[in-house]
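Q: Two folds, back to back.
A: First:
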Amino acid sequence: MKRTVLFHYAKRISLIALLCFAAFTLSVAQKPAPATDTKQVNKEAKPADTKPGPKLPFTLTVKMRPILNISLKAEKAKMYEVSQELSKKLKTPIFLGPERQNELITVEFSELTLEPALQLMSPTVYVDYEIDTGSGEQPKPLGIFFYDANQGEPPPTAVVTGTGQSMLIEGNTEDGVEPEGGEAKKDEEQPLRVTYENKLLTVKAKKQPLSLVLLKIGEELGIPVDIQTQNLTEVDAEISKLPVEDVVRQLSPHIRLFVRADLTRAEKRALRLVYAEPIKVAQ
């Protein structure tokens, strides 16, 4: 019996020892891992040191809506750099005269439309435009010229180019027959009369082909006319003493007029006329 009691006692001690060992093992397994050095992690995760580029000595903002307007603040900035940035924002080529290349400008203005803004940037400015009579949009600038004072005007084909040109051939089957009333009555009876005086255009047409009217306008203005359509639309109109732009807008929505604005002299003149039907997009 004594041996039995000792046996049970020894068995109980072994069981207790096993339980304590298991509890110690579980405690060691659940012990949290040592804390990571956050300073070291942050140091390793820190991005590469990137230095910002040199700050431009001017601030230029161009807004296209609701109308084109420009804001500029420049303090002894290179005209070349300002023009380059303006060209990029307007998506329009800008040409500088030789003396303007390294010129420094100091100017400040806010939300001015194109032409007043350009005039503050340069004493001599030319702008070539394209006017689409059917778009309803403002004239599109094709090229801007910041020229030197004594450089002269850019050539007409500096940005407005084209190889097509139509010719006007006139004739009179009644030569030698003088109508009653002399020259005055003869002029009144002409089915097409175009005059250009004091930078104003007058067109009087009685059922005349539009292409013929445009060729006559081109002859009067001394500019090339490119007829790219066989459309025989007739014109029956009487337009008196209006700027060229207003006249062609009234004649057809399928005309593109190219003009040059001399901002120094506040003058505009036509460079080229193109008459073409709109391109039909296949469904």
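A: Second:
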Amino acid sequence: MTASVLYDAPGPKTRARSRVISIVSGVVIVGITVWLIVSLGMPRTTVNGAVLTGLWDPSRWDIFVDKRAGEVWSGLLVRGLIQGTLAAAGLAAVLAIIIGIAFSFLRTARSRWVRVPTTIVLEFFRGMPVLLMMLFILLAFATVGYWAAVWALAVYNGAIIGEALRAGIAALPKGQREAGLSLGLTGFQTRMIIEFPQALKQMLPIIIAQLVVLLKDTSLAYVVAYPEILRVSQQMRDFYGSTKYSFSIFLVVLAIYLTVNLSLSWLARRIARGGGKRGKDKAKAAGPNPGGADTALLSVGATASLGAIADGGSHGGGGHGGGDGAPGATTGSS
């Protein structure tokens, strides 16, 4: 048994108690789930006396399997998901990453005249609800629902991604920047070549998680009359019968959302796990390094600087002849 520095290891009684609580909680959760499923499947009577079939009755799901199935699935998957939700989310994600990178560079600029206004604008966009931003873009710029949704999602999520990248850059050791400057790089080159790639790699799972939020927020485009999957499902419900098929269409749309979002979440975890594994493999291959990455970069910088000094000294000795010693004379004669 390994000891923990945060808390005492649980004893036999605590482990047994935790096991009993877990079993009881699992039984309660399963019981509530079974009760909910059975209750939804029971027929119901409305206030007007009409009897409605249970939500699991085959008559509520026949549009997904009969001759109307092709029209229903093409409407939900093609027109709603691909042409609606994913089309807006894909472009908004690309723009959000670009805006986030720009915000991160402006937010960490050395000049206060750049950094302070950028901070004010960034906090303003982070604090504004996406729904209000969609309505503002729609009304102020007299555009269509697609561009109102795309730009609102891009600006809002770009502000959050920019703050995440800024935090990633600020979390890097100061020696990273000093090592880059010692190599003769400018401040901008150091930021682009050394600091930003590391911050992007560290914050990539957070960025992908934010893109999942962006995908879910496309459902807010319903208010600007953009035909994403939720609005398309509402139109289909009204067309085929709002009373009969509302619950079944809702569950299908929910399953589609969960499939897409869980796939992106799985991708984020896979990238985070892969990045950590590659970092450990590189550390094992490099061997023990007490100074870490900063020492390695500083060693490279020191080697390059010494090489430049040595080259300068040899060229200088050659130019002046052999006045400073035999090496200079030898180089000059050669």
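Q: And?
A: Residues 234 and 241 are 10 Å apart (CA to CA).
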